[in-house]
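Kindly draft a sequence, keeping tokens residue-aligned:
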Amino acid sequence: MELITGSDSGKKLLFDSLERKPVSRAPWVPFAGIHAGKLKSYMAIEVLKDKRKLLESLLEVNRLYRPDGQPVLFDLQLEAEALGCELVWSDHNPPSVCSHPLKGNKEIPARVLDESSGRIPMVLEVMNDMKREVGDRTALFGLICGPLTLASHLRGTDFFMDLIEDAEYTERLLSYTKDVCIAMTDMYVRAGMDVIAFVDPLVSQISPRHFQRSLLKVFGELFRHVKSCGVKSSFFVCGDATKNIELMCQTGTDSIFVDENIDLSSAKAITDRYDIVIGGNIPLTTTMLYGTQQDNIKYVVDLIEKLGTERYIVAPGCDMPYDIPIENAIAVQQTVSDMENAKRILENYEADDTDVNIELPDYKNLPRPLIEVFTLDSATCAACTYMMSVARLAIEEFGDLVEVVEYKSTVRENIARAKAMGVRNLPSIYINGKLKYSSVIPDRREFFGEIKRLIDS
């Protein structure tokens, strides 16, 4: 495969896009975290803990997918683990946080992260190696767990009550997690990262009022710090963050990345007003995981025809699932590189409308309240993790008087179920077949009140 270098490199294309210069095509950034391991037959835990296997996997992403930019690591638990959170590991998913050092107390940690903390030394070594191997032609992204999600990792679901009831403690904890983000930024910039991205899935789960009160200043300081380091910046959010897109633009970021929960045309109309680049939002499961090559080509062609190539970066909606077929990601890259040929491939395209037959519960005659949580995957999606955690609290509160079920969209049958239920955004909670919470983590008292009314009725 001939590599593109010099002035025609993908890195320059991505930089031109982020600097709002004219570009010949939309840049392409595959967010291949644990999926990178699949390319070399390594499990998630191997690529996230083993320097050699992570580097091999990232170089294979670079070889196969020919990205204009790529992340070195997509692990939102890296900082949390180094700060004392325990993790549950999985073969095909990133780890998830299973303990919260600040649960039940309102302390502010004193621990400072540095080059010797947790798995950070391994990550920094790989960043330096990637910079040396592909840094001339590929822009490298350093992904950092955002301050809101990191605060939630440390405090657990209690933090969502803090946001409502204790503004003073919320401010102090977010100031601490902001400082952690700044320390990570400095380490990543020294390791050669070209773009610093704060990935904060839980931003989609809070109201604009809480964002403005608790986060606008925090993120503003973060993006000013990144700018002072002389590198580009990005604000990455998962879930339906539509209500917060304009506030995200006011933080001073160079770019925003969103997933399939967002109507990209509407969001881009807002980001264009602020002269900010937007990226995303190829659906992770319905298109990239379960779709065909033509499905992926079709989605990207439609996106580019609708949005154009200015101030837009083609990317998956979030961290790519482990088992995404390699040919689907290659199809996206080839579409971005040669739109005209992609359109010719689609001349005889027909979407597969085959549906899995799903039988829904008889919601009018349930023996007990049924809480159904539709997620991307609570093991991999932080917003889904914390929504699912609140749902499980119902079992602690009411015991066998309630039933809680999670439907992960990584399972084909669950995609069909979500379609049958009319689920529009992930994560969402339905109680007895009725939508109660969509892309917002419920207030525990309100949630329990809903359930108690059903139990007592």
Summary: The radius of gyration is 21 Å. Confidence is low (pLDDT under 50) at residues 1-7. The CA atoms of residues 11 and 100 lie 39 Å apart.
